[in-house]
Amino acid sequence: MFVAPALRESSSAPSRLSFASVLESGVSALPLPRRLSAPVAEALDEVAQGEVFEHSATLDAKQVSTDALLEPIVGPVARSFLEHDIASLAKAYGALLGRRHLHGQLAVVAHDACRKLHADNVTIRLLCTYAGPGTQWVPDDGVVRENLGRVDVSLEEANRSVLRHPDALRQCEAGDIILLKGEAFARNRGFGAVHRSPPIAARGLRRLVFKIDERPCGC
């Protein structure tokens, strides 16, 4: 199921104030819609259709270097956009949580990953799908939490049983940011954001996905 977000007006990275709403009690997922320009969207899609890779790096939120993440990307439009956007997102995320050292990952994904609706054992995770289908998520009032993690039924039935109503599943579009408050966030055990990666293998689709998490060092 897919519920399209409202028309998106901005392609700029959100400020710390935009991110801050995810810290509020009762908020587990904060989608931030953005529109990619046509040339940027085309360039990022070309990256997604190319070599499959997964690059991780420690990001310094005070002085972000994206070289390790962007090593496979040679196209000038895609590289220039990603350098600026990843740096902006890392700085905003670091300011949000008061952390300097972050864990960043950029990957071209051509397989199905995390197809079951679930909540992660993280504090707050930032995801941005630059090309391809975006992250799927469920608002808190649409989740039947007691059905998370079921293994007694098929994957499809397990996912359906988590949804309080059939149209509860939402989906981000390319360029959108989503902040997911996890089970490890203070006083959030049992209320982590419920989400999954969209299935793509059967449709022959690719995704270009960026992720930020806190580093275990906590600094």
Offer a concise description of the structure.
This protein is α+β, with helices and mostly antiparallel strands. Helices cover 21% and strands 22% of the residues.
Mean pLDDT: 91
CATH architecture: Sandwich
Number of E-type strands: 9
* CATH class category label: Mainly Beta
Overall geometric form: globular
Number of helices: 4
Q: Order of strands across the biggest sheet?
A: 1-7-4-9-3-2
The major beta sheet can be summarized as: 6 strands, antiparallel
Question: How helix-rich are the residues, as a percent range?
Answer: 10-25%
Q: List segments where confidence is low: pLDDT < 50 over at least 5 consecutive residues.
A: 1-11
H/E element order: HEHEHEEEHEEEE
Radius of gyration: 17 Å
Number of folding domains?
A: 1
Description:
The protein is globular, with a radius of gyration of 17 Å. It has helices spanning 16-19, 38-48, 76-97, 155-162, and strands at 29-32, 54-60, 101-109, 124-131, 136-138, 170-171, 177-181, 194-196, 207-214. 21% of the residues lie in helices and 22% in strands. It has a single domain (16-214), classed as Jelly Rolls, CATH 2.60.120. It has 4 helices and 9 strands; from the N terminus they run H-E-H-E-H-E-E-E-H-E-E-E-E. By secondary structure, it is of the alpha+beta class. The protein has a 6-stranded antiparallel sheet with strand order 1-7-4-9-3-2. A 3-stranded antiparallel sheet has the order 6-5-8, with no helix packed on it.
